[in-house]
Amino acid sequence: QVQLVESGGGLVQAGGSLRLSCAASGRTVSTYGMAWFRQAPGKEREVVAVTGLSSGSTYYANTVKGRFTISRDNAKNAVTLQMNSLKVEDTAVYYCAANAGSYSIRRYDYEYWGQGTQVTVSS
């Protein structure tokens, strides 16, 4: 069993930055593909960023490419999402997810999910 807990969400002005963290327990995240998803009100949950098991294996949604960075902190058994140049349209609940299988951008491939953390960007 893998338990995931997100933190770092909050209210920030447009153009600002936030750093989300996903702390894992029960298993070591270095053996899992990890991803961040987000869901805005009235919209489908969508992938934001993925980091696979292979070094350099990452994916970013076009809407966040160049602004967000996903990374692993194996010493802390965590995955982070650095979000810079935030926009109002980035407002959503952000979820951390773990995948014991191969690299994937499909939400149904992820076995474990955190509870989500709210990110609100104001103009």
Number of helices: 0
Bin the helical content: under 10%
User: Mind summarizing the main beta sheet?
Assistant: 7 strands, mixed
Task: Give a count of the beta strands, DSSP E runs of length 2 or more.
Answer: 11
Properties at a glance:
mainly beta; seven-stranded mixed β-sheet; 11 strands
Describe the structure.
It contains no helices and eleven strands. The chain is an all-beta fold and 123 residues long. The strands form two sheets. Strands 2, 4, 5, 6, 9, 10 and 11 form a seven-stranded mixed sheet that branches. Strands 1-3-8-7 form a four-stranded antiparallel sheet, with no helix packed on it.
Set out the fold topology.
Blueprint: E1 3-7, E2 10-13, E3 18-25, E4 33-39, E5 46-51, E6 58-60, E7 68-73, E8 78-83, E9 92-99, E10 112-113, E11 117-122
Parallel strand pairs: 2-11
Antiparallel strand pairs: 1-3, 3-8, 4-5, 4-9, 5-6, 7-8, 9-10, 9-11
What's this model, at a glance?
0% of the residues lie in helices and 50% in strands. The protein has strands at residues 3-7, 10-13, 18-25, 33-39, 46-51, 58-60, 68-73, 78-83, 92-99, 112-113, 117-122. By secondary structure, it is mainly β.
